[in-house]
Amino acid sequence: MTDKNDDSLIERLKRNEKDAQTELVKKFNSRILLYFRMRIKGEDSYEDLAQEVFASFFVGVANDKIPEDALIAPFMFGIAKRVMFNFFYKKKRDDNIQKKGEEHFDLSCDFEEEERLENEDMNAIIRQTMLKLPEVDKIILKEFYLKENNLGEVADILGKSKHYVSVRKERALKKIKNEILKRKDLYIVQR
Amino acid sequence: MTMACSEFTSLIDGYLKGDVPEEKSETFEAHFFECDACFHELKLRERLYSKEVPIVLKGTKPFWAWGFKPVLALASLLVVVVSSFLVIDNYNRAKFLLEISGVEPPVYVQSETRNTFQDQTLSKAMTMYDNRRYEQALELLETAGTDSAPEASNPQIVFFKGICRLQLNQPKAAIRHFDEIIGEMNPSYYDEAIFYKGIALLRLNKKDAALEQLKNVAAMFSPHAARAKEIIKKIND
User: Fold this and answer.
1) Residue B191 CA to chain centroid, in angstroms?
2) I need a surface site. Which of A17, A73, A176, B29 has the fewest CB within 10 A?
3) Is the pLDDT of residue A128 over 90?
């Protein structure tokens, strides 16, 4: 998998272009925050951790640690993993590890606010698309996601088979996802 | 190790619930860092789990919010038309039964009974009855019935109370009086009580029950038999 935009993005980052930083943050901020949310439970904020990931990446780019033809995503994921391990290590040892590169890059971006806005956009699209779904699909999504019933329980509620519920759920999600992909291309970078 | 998009999709719900084993989790996470479409699907489901997006089901809408549905409108029209025919038919049938139930009340001949009934109240009541003042007659008959115990169960009082009720268009109450006589099988007013019960039932639009009573009378050796047969014929025609 080659990201056509990655080469130029890394080059632009090397030139310290503000737009390139914003583009990178836009693409990976949400993924990084979701990753931390799933991996580190019970934290109030993942802002510092996200900042650390981006700062590390920019330091890497600035120090030519990331080749120009490299894929950004695996690097980002690798850094996020390391930051997470460091977080647990710090927590265990109560050790303050210095954040490298903070002085070189102005990352005053409010990562969580960015994600909140992004989520609001997505919520609006989901809400609108949901109105067009058949009632049975809405019931399935409501029972599965909002009430957190499993497929078997939803099937029992509807008096249908588990397979029927599973197929309808996936179809409904696909409809919503297609709508999101159609209307929300602002942070999708073509692969 | 990479993961196919189809496998990723199948693991999303489990990942968000924390049910995906560690060895799969890492490959899963690496995949969503790379794949935009899969990440959007993951985000979508995370949004649904977040409960920030309410899923509103259609409730029972008021009728003005139904919107125009041609099939529903046509069905409603059909129901209205059929119901109208049924109502009209029912009305005509009831009207017809009421018409044929409009028989004359039995004539009370004072001279025949005056000697039998010593009670002045009863005498007055029957005078009222003769003058077709059924309300006053009924009032006096009620008093006569309670004042003198022997007359209370007097079949004549009971029967004429029934007739008064019938004339006052109270067929249900009339039937109660007639049933009292029929139940006691008092020969004096037995066939008359059945006949007028049939008439009261016609007024209540209970054709079958009325026919049953009238047929009983028609089969009897009774002065009302001919009239009963006549009404039966009208109903059957």
Assistant:
1) 31
2) A17
3) no
- The closest CB to that of A123, out of B36, B47, B58, belongs to B47
Question: How many Å separate Cα B105 from the centre of its chain?
Answer: 30
In chain B, pLDDT over 70 holds for what percent of residues?
78
CA distance B78 to chain A (A): 28
Give the CATH fold of the A112-183 domain. Arc Repressor Mutant, subunit A (1.10.10)
pLDDT at A189 over 60: no
Buried b (16+ CB within 10 A) or exposed e, B19-54: ebeeebbeebbbbbbbbbbbbbbbbbbbbbbeeebe
- List pLDDT tens digits, range B56-91: 776 545 455 555 667 777 888 888 888 777 777 666
Q: What chain A residue is nearest to B51 in terms of C-alpha separation?
A: A146
ipTM of the complex: 0.78
Q: Domain residue spans in chain B? A: 5-50, 110-236
Across the interface, whether the CB atoms of A76 and B33 are under 8 A apart is answered yes
Chain B neighbors of A119, CB-CB under 8 A: 47, 50, 52
Residue A160 DSSP symbol: S
Nearest-CA distance from A96 to chain B in Å? 27
From A189, which residue of chain B is nearest by alpha-carbon distance? B36
Can you give the C-alpha Rg of chain A in angstroms? 20
DSSP B157-176: HHHHHHHHHHHTT-HHHHHH
User: Could B34 and A181 be called an inter-chain contact, meaning their C-beta atoms sit closer than 8 Å?
Assistant: no
Chain B partners within 8 Å of A77 (Cβ): 29-30, 33-34
The answer, yes or no, to whether residue A8 has pLDDT greater than 80, is no
Q: B110-236 sits in which CATH class?
A: mainly alpha
Q: What is the pLDDT of residues B218-234, one digit of tens each?
A: 888 777 888 888 888 88
* Counts for chain B of helices (H) and strands (E), in that order: 13, 0
Of the partner residues B16, B18, B40, the one whose CB lies closest to the CB of residue A177? B40
**Gap between the Cα atoms of B206 and B199, Å rounded:** 10
Contact B44 A35 (CB under 8 A): no
Q: Is pLDDT above 80 for B207?
A: yes
Which range is most confident: A74-88, A113-127, B176-190? Answer: A74-88
- Domain extents in chain A: 4-109, 112-183
Report whether pLDDT(B112) > 60: no
Contact criterion met (CB below 8 Å) for A60 and A78 = no
